[in-house]
Every structure is written in C-alpha cells, then in structure tokens.
Task: structure prediction
Amino acid sequence: MNADINNFYLDIPTKNLVGFNQDGTQEFLGQGENNNRYRLTGSLEARVSESIDWLNGFDIEHRETGDYVNRDVNNQIITTSMEANQALETALYSQMDMSWDAYRWVLGARYIDNEQAGDDWLARLSYVYAINNNHSIKVLYSEGFNTPTFVQQYIEIKPNIVKGDEDIKAEKVKTWELVYSAQSGRHFFVVNIYKIDISNFGLFRLLAITTALWFFIPIKLYRKKFTISFYEYVIFNIISFAPTSIVLLFILNLTFNSSPYIETYQISDFEPFDEKYIFNLADGQYQEDEYLRTIYDYNFPNIQGTTEYSIKFSDGYFGLRVIEEKSSH
Result:
C-alpha cells in the first residue's frame, strides 16, 4: 500500500492584466494551502498456479484547489478566474497473467468512478508469442479514462478571453499496438505499430489487428509441411493473410450490419465537378471527408434548388459505418 500528498502553488506576475493597461498577479488564494492532491493505492498479487498470477488493487485520489484570482499592483483582488473546487476519483482493478510455454496472455479490467466525470469500465488485453529465444510478437489493446481538469471546466478569464466548458465529458482512449522484437547478440530490433483513438476503431488498426491475428499460428505448424524460414514466415503473413482478412471483414460488415439510420444536413452551397456534385454542408460537417459530401448527377440529375443532403448509414463491426445511400432534396 502506498500513499502520497502533493501541494502546489501558482503565482504569475502578468503585464497589462487589469484593464489591459495595469500590471497584476494571477495566483491561488492562501499561497496554495487549499491546493492539494491526496492519493492512496494498494495491490495484492496471488499465485494461482505455476502458470497463472492474479493481481487485484485499488486507487483513491482526491484533488482540490482554492480560488484562482487576479490581483492588482496594490494586492487587491480584482476578479476570480476560477472558484474553489474538489473531486474524488476511485478505481478498482483486476488482472490475470497466464503463461504456457511460448504463449502469454494478460487479461485485465478496471472500474473507475469520478464524482464529476462519471464512471466507466475499462479493458486491457495483451498477447505475447515467443517465437524463439530471440524473436517475439506482442499484440496489446487497452482503454484509458481521461477526466477533464478543473481548468478545462471552470476557468473564466474575462472578458471572454478564456472560458471553460462545464459540460465537457471524460475521454475514453482506446489504444491498439502491434510489436515485433528481435535480438541478436548486442543488437536489439523493434517494430512498433500503434494507434490511439478516442472515437472510432479506424482502418489502420483493423489492418494491424488482422495482421497480428495470423501470427497467432506458430511457425512450427508451418514447418511440419514446408521449409520456411522465420523471415519468410513474417513476410508471408503480412502480404498474404492480412489483405484476405480485410476483405472478409468488409464482407462481414456489409452482410451483418445494423438497422439503417439517416443523417440530414443543411446545404450551404455545392460545386459541380466531372459528373458529380460536392456539397459544402452547414457547420462544416464532413469537411475533411469529401467523399461523404459527393453525389453523382446520375443518382440525382436535378440538383438545382436542393437545400438538404441526407446519408443513410448502418453500423458495422469495429466502428466502421456502411454507406447505404446518399441523396439531396
């Protein structure tokens, strides 16, 4: 069990702080006596068997700050940029570490509850295959819970210079990682492919995961029928099985997607271009995804006078969305 206490204080002399023409100071009241962070952690690891270890633990963290104010050169408080606040965050976690011969699995779950940002369940999964004493492959998936800070939520520097968002939500961060490592004498070689996302799964990680899945097949199974070196084994998996898996997964998405739903947007204007029209949608919707704003004239030949644009979607697996239909009206 571990415990720690931190105290912090901020004092920033600032030019033209008051009325844009008088110097002042930004600081926490009481020289930071109310700016504290208390943290208590504990864990217990048990040996279930020679192949399985079980880890359980908890984290408790309390954060608090005093008023954050602006003072003039006479040390008088002019404004309060952020009022005193506090938050309590608790977490419980459990993890199983399992090893058999050249294989190792780590399965974990974490429950986190922040009194201001809500609660959530987080997962962790990793797989390591030791190809031999010098080569290994690891696949890792993990989730994180990023709670907003007091500054992000409650700071307000007038007049409308900086203003926090009290309704900002915690981010659930998902990470996928594929690692290949090799060691020869004093040389160590690592290839690391990873992607961090706070929303959709993404095709890049889909490719990485499908490639990794085929490395679950040990090279010794291939060598029962083929004369294949380790490097041929790696190249064979990357250029052969991964694209096949991608095609199968797209077919899976097209076949077993969810019930369709329609999103409709206001059209600001459109640009005719080579038998198609590219819409500019209100509020910059899909500004970076031009293909979602494109419709061909043979699908809707009378484009003049349209004010709305609709896309019919259905949700597939791994965060991919299937485009069922696009129309303007």
Notes: The mean pLDDT is 79.
